[in-house]
């Protein structure tokens, strides 16, 4: 009796366990704090509503992902543990992977998004695309909720995202990376961004921004990358930019910047890239008054800078690998000191008014793989050794220099510089 009673008890216990398990599977979301990754209910619901706002009403998070920080992870969502409970830390929305959810036509930034208490990173990629969605702009309200959490904010490839950058972004004091690239954003740049002193990356390229660059951006002393290329920014380069002492990459190409390149730029000792091409910069080349020994790429083409290359101290930029100075109204001769830039790989001097001879010393630059001097007023015979033409091929361009000639009539046409006449005896 006793034995069989014990057996019955065991069977009943097992059955109860099975019912319990089935119950858990069916009502997983209700038992969220017993199985899986425990979350505060408001946090979990905020997550569902926020994502539903982006992908559409059909998406039922609690059905599809009852345990979003545990055994039913949502693609693009990461979580972390704070005092024994799970919170959302990263959200990536949009078509990042083949199987990511597309954004809805009538998407909205749900007010629930801003209830996520520990959100560190928000990224919206290739999401707001079709004009029928829009116009959708970044509403200025609510962002203050993220002021002590968010470190990275990225909107990339959203042509349907229009309007200005909200000034309230200036309150996101933990922000280290603000990337707003290839959207339809416009208006002037908010002064308040200059308050984000932890910022390391400020990328605003490929939008429709206008107006001047705020002087306050010179306070971003921890900035490593500043890229505002491909906008319609105007005015002068702020003198305050000498304060961007950590800067590695500075790209303002394809805007309408005027005035001179301030000599304060040479305070930027760690700068490796300076690209100011395709602007309206004038006033000569005087900025490298001090050594800029980190500078590897200097790209200033398509600006009416109109000066000669003799007054520039090329020894101060001795690490240059890329030097692109085409279409700048340059006059005078090409200084022999340029052949002292031992790391040079690319030298572009097309479409200027450079005169005199092309120094054969340039052939001593072992790493040089491209040299373009098309469309100048260079004269005399080219005096490079035969091996130079063999090495360079079409990456040596010297056509449209009416008084330049080539002395090796017998060299095969394949390596002969294109468009340069053979010298007359
Ligand atoms: C999701 O589904 C559950 C149960 O299937 C339902 O109770 C809930 O209302 C749905 N939520 C939404 C937002 O549709
Ligand atoms: C410049 O780079 C060096 C080496 O990476 C680093 O030690 C230094 O702190 C940097 N300077 C500034 C002002 O960030
Ligand atoms: C370029 O700047 C000059 C002044 O330096 C100005 O007169 C001219 O209109 C500007 N050009 C464009 C296209 O903005
Ligand atoms: C040329 O390039 C090589 C390999 O990229 C590099 O190691 C070297 O420092 C460069 N400079 C010179 C002068 O050879
Ligand atoms: C080119 O140089 C020659 C002298 O070498 C000079 O006579 C001529 O005016 C120059 N042409 C231009 C367009 O600068
Ligand atoms: C440059 O040369 C090419 C052919 O070599 C010619 O078609 C072109 O018109 C020339 N351009 C100028 C500005 O002289």
TrEMBL record:
Any idea which UniProt keywords this protein has? Cell membrane, Glycoprotein, Leucine-rich repeat, Membrane, Receptor, Repeat, Signal, Transmembrane, Transmembrane helix
Which residues constitute the signal peptide according to the record?
Answer: 1-28
A Pfam match is LRR_1
Localization, UniProt:
Cell membrane
Top-level taxon in the UniProt lineage: Eukaryota
Under PANTHER family, the record lists: LEUCINE-RICH REPEAT-CONTAINING N-TERMINAL PLANT-TYPE DOMAIN-CONTAINING PROTEIN, RECEPTOR-LIKE PROTEIN 12 ISOFORM X1
The protein here is known as Piriformospora indica-insensitive protein 2
Origin organism is: Tagetes erecta
